[in-house]
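Example (one chain per record):
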Amino acid sequence: MASKAQLQPNGLAAYQTQVIFKLPRASVTRAEQCQTTAASLKVLRNMDAGWLFESAPDAMLLVDGQGWIAIVNTQLERMFGYRREELVGEPVEKLLPKSFRNGDTAYLSGCTAAPRTRPMHENLQLHGLRKDGTEFPIEMSLSPLETEEGVLISSAIRDVSDLKRVQELQAQLEFEQMMLRLSKTFINLPVERIDGEVQEGLRELAEVMDLDRVNIYLFDADKISRTITHAWIRPGIPPPPPGKIMNEEFPWIASRIANREISFISGPEELPEEAAAEREYMLSVGVKSWLAIPLQVGGELLGSVGASTFRRRRTWDSLLISRFQQAAEIFANALARARADEVLHQAYREIEQLKGQLEEENVYLREEVKLEHHHHEVIGDSEGIRRVLKKAEQVAPTDSTVLLLGETGTGKELIARAIHELSRRKDRAMVKVNCAALPASLVESELFGREKGAYTGALTREIGRFELANGSTILLDEIGELPLELQSKLLRVLQEGEFERLGGPKTIKVDVRVIAATSRNLQQAAREGKFREDLFYRLNVFPLTIPPLRERREDIPALAWHFVNDLSQRMGRSIESIHGSTMEAFKSYYWPGNVRELRNVIERFLITSTNTVFRADLSAAETAVGAHAQTFEEVERNHILHIMGIVGWRVRGERGAAQILGLKPTTLESRMQKLEIVRPK
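Predicted structure:
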């Protein structure tokens, strides 16, 4: 260490002169070295700045116009690990890594060519090189000093390693805060907002990572081209290529993306020979550095997200790439969800386009799927039900018309389905029409179809259920409710297999197997003139009467267990047993609504059940024992009156009389009218 006396201007001059003479350079004469050093010392003496130069907190050195080190201070020795005599007379590049020398030499020569003070500037991304070979980040300022012998350059160097670490921590904090915002933004984000939020996310990513252009490419369906869907561009920066980009235009990048490889360069010169197209483009628009990361979700390659810098070169270290990749994964998941939603909507649009083509059988099947068939075979082993099933097996292979008779809720539709499934027509869907549920004005068009303009409001052509059932089976439920004026048209279909659409002159031929069902006495209705006698005889080819539940009480336990198991599973309940008193009540109850009423009663009490033992209170209902002395109509009338009193004479809706009795509201209203049941004033 030099003494304080040596640090005075005169002592410093003597010390530096002694050192530089000991280290002659081959390319500089001894006279030139002496002249440069003398000029440097003269400047310091004239400025009386020797003491300030030596005691400055930053590393200081004086360089001549050719970049030779003339003077250094003690702080520079400590910073770089050299002694003065190892630096004086050496080129300034000795203190710089090879990868930085070109840029820094230009910085020095620029200062001598156009003398002006240049402050420390972090954007230069300079590094120093210690004697031990380690590199460290520095900031450097240059100040020209004009002398009689020429321009000398005074340089101050500052070690910014600690500052860089603080900046890196700040950058990490900013990045993590941004990632937190992005993650929160895209959680449960409505699909229609995804594009806008991805765009905003690109802006945040570019600003946090100091990028000039960030864009997302998504592959088209053919995978041979890609299109920019989202981009953020700093003002004054050239935009990316517009429109579709074919893979063959930039084959090197396209190949690496297809192979799911991350690609990055700090300058176009780093591109390989096969990337000639990419290099030409980057040089033409001024791209200095570039990064591309594949976008993939669940193994599917969606495209890529790219980043470019134009203002300065960028070194892509592993930390920077990892951060960029984390943000890319968030964008990829959001865009994949948006694409899946678009695919779903496209499927919906295609369904709408095909709706006309599926108007026949498939549309009807979609309607049928809404119905809940709670059992696929008849439950019970009573003599009455076995007799019905045996007859169904006998008639099923034929094309004969079947007339199903029985009270409402006995399972006539279920028997009709069993006949259809055992027939040669089972490969096509059975078509069902409830004649009681259709307004009289629409029955004809529903059964036989209509032409466009057949009546006011008929804006399109519509085929009827008979046309839908061509080659299959049609179930005409509640056939006794069919308007008298349409019965002749139905008779013609049964006899000749032909009809005309409403408003159409063309005769249509069909091959349909007819199964009719009714809870009315059609023979009595025919005698009263309410039903065509010839139609009755045409329907009554093979009559099949379904016994009411009260006539097959031995089937009640099996039916009750079937409904308890089925409904409890639907409700998420666990029922282990049915209470004995409840089963006895079920077996003794009259069940005017038959199997349908049994199911509804079980469902109603399951809703309020809180334990594993099923109970149902039927004490308010009449039992079969008390009903023996009454006619069927009297029992039915009294039961309906009892239920109507409980529900306050409400027929329809939740917990209305129709729901409790297991009847359709229209059927209940029809029965009330027949039994002359009116609400008391």
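Caption: Residues 318-353 form the longest helix (36 residues).
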